[in-house]
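User: Is it possible to get a 3D structure for a protein together with its bound compound? The compound here is phenylalanine. I've pasted both below.
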Amino acid sequence: MIEQIKKHIQEVLAYQTQDTAEIEAFRIKYLGKKGILNDLFAQFKNVPNDQKKEFGQVINELKNAANQKVNDLKETLQNEQDTALTMDLTRPGEPFPMGSRHPINIVKNRIISIFERIGFTLSEGPEIEDDWHNFTALNLPQHHPARDMQDTFFIEKNPDWVLRTHTSSVQIRHLENNRPPLRFLSPGRVYRNEAISSRSHMMFHQIEGLYIDKDVSFADLRQTLSYFTQELFGKSEIRLRPSFFPFTEPSAEVDVYWGLETEADYRMTKGTGWLEIMGCGMVDPNVLKNVNIDPEEFSGYAFGMGIERIALLLYQIGDIRLYTENDIRFLKQFKAELF
Ligand code: PHE
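Assistant: Yes, that's possible. Here is the predicted structure of the complex:
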């Protein structure tokens, strides 16, 4: 019997509810006229004398516990109802703080929309690449010194699995599965194992473009890039400086004439007025052959740029580290941007 009363005590202590009717039912169950406690008290006279003392103690313990529990439950409920009553539901809600897009994303979307207007579509691919798509198909055979231009993170050697060093790998994938005419952009993250310093990042974003059709010329490339710089920077004067990329021939670096109106212009352009913004060139015939496109029939141009750098120029951001620090004072400045 005493064991059973102890069980009741456990039960009472553990009981929880937020409902008025349930609290009342609980009270009646234990403390009501026909409740458990009265029942137990009625049995008191039948308890052998030597057990009466302990029996009385546990019954009292149960009674106190039950009373205490009913009071506690009622009090909690009352408190909650009080706060509910003082709450003014007609007041306007807390304003929900709007986030803002990251500048890298804004610039990426702007670049995409500029090229979409002249017929470019999008193509994306994996960040972990095999040797063929990242290097060999792009006219960078094994042991070619030009591979050193892009310090590579190897995931596995033999066979080679790498973190792609540029999004040109996506172009190869797209060319393997589609036939010209083709005009598309490949945006994405790329990885380079460059000397670690506070100013270098091992991951950055690129956007590359490719156009392949009959009779695509260097003049087409120049015209497209001039349209692009006009749309993005409001400046259409560009110059193409001879350069080298294994996958294009001829190759060039693109400079945009930024101007020398302000002191910042002098600083940014090192007094020349010109800013380098991307690499480009005519797709090397070897690349076309590698994806079974006849270079006698088709030609094409390609270009590629780093989005971090473009955003740096567009917003005059002083330090590339700001992109990754997640400092809200920096990020919220881009709120007004719609993209
Ligand atoms: N893939 C080159 C790079 O990562 C950029 C580029 C793309 C240059 C296309 C020319 C043509 O540096």
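The chain has two domains: 1-77, 103-332. The mean pLDDT is 91.
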